[in-house]
Every structure is written in structure tokens, then in C-alpha cells.
Specification:
six-stranded antiparallel beta sheet, about 40% helix
Length: about 250
């Protein structure tokens, strides 16, 4: 069993340890013992699951919810708009809290944005639009191969071209009103999301390539760092843990 197969199974592993003796998880747990990156990821995953469980346990359903659900289809039952029922609003708000990403990005003018803002933006963007992130577009294969085989440390060896990114049809988003490109790629078996935007207008304090390794930010499942060179600012995000990120830095 490899890293990614074990991770797929362990997403169903309960936080109370009641699955420890389940044969379905035996090989995956053995892989955890051999794989420090997987062990770090599992600790983060279990911590997140416990936080979600705590939020759900704190939800107090409105009185009569069970009866209302069971009687839901009856025409004789007077209908009450859930949108104006305070109890339903409480449930909806709790669900929104549980499934929202903890990253919060301020609305900033370009002159105020720096490396930390770009890293936070990138983590938030990956979390919110995960289904739009793809590595399967044939026209991006050459660029992805280049990133997958780039010399390390990655920040010191990136040579990006805005015209190339635009021509290849890289996914585009807006960071503080700035055109920003995203490229998804694998390196060493781990998936990364690289965001690229022109450096003009970023705060002078934005991290250099040398500083990027010491500026790894975390939020929920995600880890990110950001840096700049003479032309571009970069943010690099992964779901595979801080060690997976640092191995490129």
C-alpha cells in the first residue's frame, strides 16, 4: 500500500480509535508507521474531524424538528417557512460554520498586499473551488512536467512566463484585483497548487525565495508559503502537510 492509497482509506478512520482493530485499516496504519508525511497528515485530519464533531455536537435542533420531518409531506400540515424560523436559522448557521474554511482574506488594495496575504488567499481559493482544480488538461502537460522535475529548492528555480501561462489557458483568478494564474502539478507523488501573479504593486516586505522556507502558513488541511522574484509573486499550496511543502523549499 502506498501513501495515497493509505490516505484514501484513513479519511474514514474514526477519531476515537474504535477502528484500530478493523482489518480494513491494518495496512493503512502500518503505512502511517513508515511514512512521517502520512503520520503528520493523519494527525491534522483527526484534529479537524474532532473540531467538526465538536461543532455538530453543539448544535441544538429546534423543538419539534423530528416531528416536522416525519410529517413533512402532509398537505394538511400547515407549512412554515424555514427561512423565518429562528430554530432553522440556527441549524443553517451551524452547518455553515462547520463546512466553512477557517482562512479569512481581507479585502486589500494592491499596495498593501504581501506574501502572507497571497498565501492566505491561495489556501482559501483552493478550499473554496477544489472541484475546479485539475491536472488532466493535455495542453498543460509540458508545464506540469517541468514543475514536476524542477531543480530544488523550487523558489530559486522557477522561470515562469505570463504570456505562456495565458496561452496555455491556465486557470485564472483574481487576487486583490490582479490577474493570477494557477497551475496544479505533482512532485514526488504529492499534489501542489502554484499561484502566480505579477510582482508590480506588492508590498516591499513580500518574502524573497530564501525566506519562503521559514514562512509556511497553515489553515485546516492546507499549508502554503509565498515568495517573489524580479517579475512574479508565487504562492504554493498543498493538502499533504507542512513537510510535503518544505521538501520543495
Amino acid at each position: 500500500m502506498n501513501h495515497h492509497e493509505a490516505k484514501f482509506l484513513l479519511r474514514a478512520y474514526r477519531t476515537d480509535g474504535s477502528d484500530a482493530a478493523d482489518p480494513m485499516f491494518t495496512a493503512a496504519l502500518a503505512q502511517v508507521g513508515r511514512d512521517p508525511l502520512l503520520r503528520d497528515w493523519l494527525e491534522c485530519e483527526q484534529s479537524f474531524d474532532r473540531a467538526v464533531t465538536a461543532k455538530l455536537n453543539a448544535v441544538q435542533p429546534p423543538a419539534g424538528l423530528r416531528e416536522a420531518i416525519l410529517a413533512g409531506g402532509r398537505a394538511s400540515q400547515p407549512r412554515r417557512r424555514w427561512s423565518v424560523n429562528p430554530g432553522w436559522l440556527a441549524v443553517a448557521a451551524a452547518i455553515a460554520i462547520v463546512f466553512s474554511v477557517t482562512v479569512r482574506v481581507r479585502s486589500l488594495r494592491s499596495s498593501e498586499t504581501g506574501a502572507g496575504d497571497f498565501a492566505a488567499f491561495a489556501m482559501n481559493e483552493v478550499a473554496k473551488t477544489h472541484d475546479l482544480h485539475t491536472t488532466l488538461r493535455p495542453e498543460l502537460a509540458g508545464l506540469q512536467d517541468r514543475l514536476a522535475n524542477a531543480a530544488l529548492p523550487l523558489p530559486a528555480h522557477l522561470q515562469m512566463d505570463g504570456d505562456e501561462l495565458r496561452r496555455l489557458g491556465c486557470r485564472r483568478v483574481s487576487f486583490a484585483g490582479r490577474e493570477t494564474f494557477e497551475v496544479c502539478f505533482y512532485h514526488g507523488g504529492f499534489l501542489y497548487h502554484l499561484y502566480v501573479t505579477a510582482v508590480d504593486g506588492l508590498a516591499p516586505g513580500s518574502a524573497t525565495a530564501v525566506e519562503a522556507v521559514s514562512r509556511v502558513a497553515s489553515s485546516g488541511h492546507f499549508n502554503a508559503t509565498a515568495w517573489k522574484d524580479a517579475k512574479f509573486a508565487y504562492a504554493l499550496v498543498t493538502y499533504d502537510g507542512a513537510r510535503a511543502l518544505r521538501r520543495l523549499l
